[in-house]
Amino acid sequence: MYTGIFIIFFSIIVALFIFAQIKLNILNLKKEKNNINSNVTMIDDTRDPSDPSEEIKKVKIAIYAHSIANGGIERLTALLANYLSTKAIFDVYLFLNKDCKDEYKLNENIHRVKIKIHSTQLLRRRLIENQIEVFIYQFYIVSDIKMLNKLSKTKDIKTIFYNHSSFLYWIYDNNFHFFRTLYNAYRESNYIVSLIPLENDFLFKNWGINSVLMDNLMPYNYSDITPSDLSSKTILMIGRGSDKMKRFDLGIKAMKYIVKEVPDCEMKIISETDGVDDLIKLIKKLNLENNVKFEGYTSSPEKYYKNASIHLFPSITESFGLVLSETKLYGIPNILVGLDYVSCAKGGVSIIYDDKPESIAKEAIKILKNETYRRKLGKKARESMKAFDNEATVKRWERLILSIYLEDIYYHRFKALDTEKIKKKQAMKILQNQVNLLRMRIDKMKNVTVDDLLNFSYMENLYKLKRDGIYYFKHFF
Q1: Strand partners, 235
Q2: Which residues of 312-350 are buried (b: 16+ CB within 10 A; e: fewer)?
Q3: Which of 159, 242, 280, 418 is most buried, by CB atoms within 10 Å?
C-alpha cells in the first residue's frame, strides 16, 4: 500500500518538475524573443566593433556570385553585401569565381573568397573552412542545392536560395527537364527568397515550396534623384542585347511605325555590342540607322535617364526588373509587354498584351505626342517607387537572416507575421493573362489552363512532351 502511495507521490513530483522546466524554457524563449524584438535586432549598431570592451558575437554570412562586375545580379550582390556589412551583427564574406578590373565598389570590411573553378565539393569546402553560418546562394545548379540542403543538417550551415528568375523563363527557354529538377530541389529546401508576389504568395504555396518575398535593393536613393524633364523624343532599351529573352528586335520593329508619326524620335540601346549582329542587320533592313543607335555598355546608365521620355521593356520574362525600377525612379514612363506580375509593374506603366510591334508603337506614339499624358505617366512612375525603400528591405534581410540563424521557431514567427502582397482574385487575373500569352506564343500550349499552372504535377511533367528529340513546344524566337 505504502509502496503504491510512494510511487504516486514520486510521479507527481517528477511531473511537477518537468512542468516547471517546460515553463522555464518557454519563459526563456519569450525572453529571447523580447530581446530580439519585432525586427530581430540582437545588438546596438551604435557600438564600436574596434573597441575590445564592445566585443559582440557576429553571424558569419556569405554571398556567392560569379563576379561583381557589369551586370544586374552582380550589382545587386554588391549592394546587398555592402548594406549587410554595415550591420555590426554580421561578418560578411563574398564568394567569387573571378576578379575583374572594373567592379562595383565593396566596403573594406567584406572578406573576399576566391573559388576559381566552380565545383560543388569546392564550394562545400570553402563554406566549412570559413565557418559560414548563413549562406546566400544565387545560382541554379541542382547538385549545389542538394549538397547545401545536406550541409544544413550535417554542419548546421543554413542556406537561403535567392531566386532571381521567374518560372516562365524555363518554359519560354524550352528547358522543361531543368524546370522539373530545379523546382523539385526547391521543394526540398527550407529557405527560398522570391522576387515575384505571384510566385511567392500563390504559385509556390500550391507547389509546396517554402519561400519569402523580398524586394530588390534600389541602386539609387529616391531623394537624391532629379527626374527626367521628359522633353526629349528619346526611347531607351537597356540590357543584354544578345539575350533573346530581352527581345530587342521587337522594339526595333516598333520603331518602324513610330518614326512615321514622330520622325525626330530616336531610340538609344544601352547594351554591349557583342552578339548583336542580327539586331544591327535588322536596323539596316528597316532603314533606321538615323533613328536607332547602340550606345554600348555603361556602368552609369543614369546619364541616359536624365533625358529620356520612354523606357521600352519588351522582355518576354523577368523577375524584378532592375532597369524597370531604375527608370521609374527617374520618372520615365515604361512600356511593358505582358509583365504584369513584376513587383513594380504598377504606376506609370503601360502593359501591352500582344507581341505586335504595331501595338507597342501605338502606345509609344501616344506618349511622345501627348505631353499631358507623358507627364502624368512620369509622375505616377516616380511616385510609385516610394514603396521601395532600401532601409526597409535591408531590415527585412536582417530579420530573415537572424531568424534562420537562431531556430526554426523564429523563422516560423517571421513567416507568420508576413502579409501577402497579392490577393487570390488579382493573382488569378494575372495568371489568366499569362496563360493567354502562353497560348498565343507557343503552338502546343493552346489548351493550357490556370489550373494546369497551379498543379505542380502537371508542371513537372512538361518534360515528357519531348518526342523523338523534338519538343512539341517549339521555340518561337
Answers
A1: 267, 310
A2: bbbbbbbbbbbbbbbbbbbbbbbbbbbbbbbbbbebbbb
A3: 159
Residue 219 pLDDT > 70: yes
Domains of the chain, first to last: 59-219+391-416 (3.40.50.2000), 222-387 (3.40.50.2000)
Q: Phi, psi (5° rounding) for residue 355?
A: -105, 25
User: Nearest Cα to 303, choosing from 334, 270, 336, 333?
Assistant: 270
pTM (two decimals):
0.86
Quote the DSSP letter at residue 330.
T
Q: Which three cell numbers mark 300?
A: 552609369
Backbone conformation region of residue 24, classed left if phi is above 0, alpha if psi is from -120 to 50, else beta: alpha
Q: How many CB atoms are closer than 10 A to CB 129?
A: 9
Q: 164: closest CA among 217, 113, 101?
A: 217
Q: Is the pLDDT of residue 307 over 70?
A: yes
Residue reference for cell 540542403: 149
Residue type, 59: V
Read off the pLDDT of residues 102-151 as tens digits, 9 standing for 90 and up: 899 999 999 999 998 889 999 999 999 999 999 999 999 999 999 999 99
Sheet of 349-352, strands arranged across: 292-294, 266-270, 234-238, 310-313, 334-337, 349-352
Task: Identify the DSSP state of 216.
Answer: P
> Of 450, 424, 422, which is closest to residue 438 (Cα–Cα)?
450
Q: Is the distance from CB of 40 to CB of 402 less than 8 angstroms?
A: yes
Mapped onto helix, strand or coil, the DSSP state of residue 351 is: strand
DSSP code at position 274: T
16 membership: H or E segment, kind and range:
helix 2-36
Residue recorded with cell 544578345: 242
